Amino acid sequence: MTMLPFGWTLAFVFAFGAVVASFLNVVVWRVPRGESIVSPPSHCPKCGAAIPWYLNVPILSWLVLRGKCAACGNPISPRYPLVELLGGLLFAAAWLRFGVFAPLAWVWIALMIVGSFIDFDHKLLPDFVTVGGMVYGVALSGVWAVLRHAGCTPPDLPFVQPPLASLGGLAFGFGLLALVRWLGGKAFKREAMGMGDVFLMGAVGALFGPLAVLAVLMLSSILGALVGVGLILAAKARPGRFVEIPYGPYICLACLAWLFWGPELLRAYLRLLGL
To answer: Which of 40, 73, 98, 153 is most deeply buried (CB count within 10 A of its CB)?
Structure first.
């Protein structure tokens, strides 16, 4: 059987990731509004005109239409092609990192894209992202354990843990962020974070184990603090304005960093501590 050249394979994976991300744009828009993700077909949210397939090609259609609806001429947010570009790049990066096992990482990447953008827009993390992520992590752990028990030798992957590590990571991630949430509520006299963030950290632990929970918590806190400082400085020019910052996108971003560079980040952190 003739294999596709490497460049063509990577281009196909990128295109597939962009197509998946195009669908994820639909999920991000419709799920918080309680709309079906399959019906009606793709349409302009402003004029309702149906979008034919040849005007719905990821990234390219937005460029050809110059960011405007072909029917009504209203602008189309540049976030649509940017999400498609992000999906293509992440899928291709996962293929380069994990080879034929990349589709297992694609599921988690898709959940992270959806979760981060819905939380950014609506301060909401859907159950299919958080609880679904926990179930996915434990299920992968179980499948790997069965394969090894049957005499197979599936590779070590950063997002597949032994069963005890997966369950322990789930409990640790959930419990740790639940404690942070409770302490934050006591300190600030208001809800410091939503339960969606707590469940999401449980999913992180289920896929990546207890150690990753600490790393993702640290990385996401640093990212959130940097953005928070910027917002605080901006708020000084507009006194009395309170800005809520969703935490989920930073967890998702930190988790993607751990997915691709977990061992490298761990070694760098240990060197920083002199260990």
So the answer is: 98
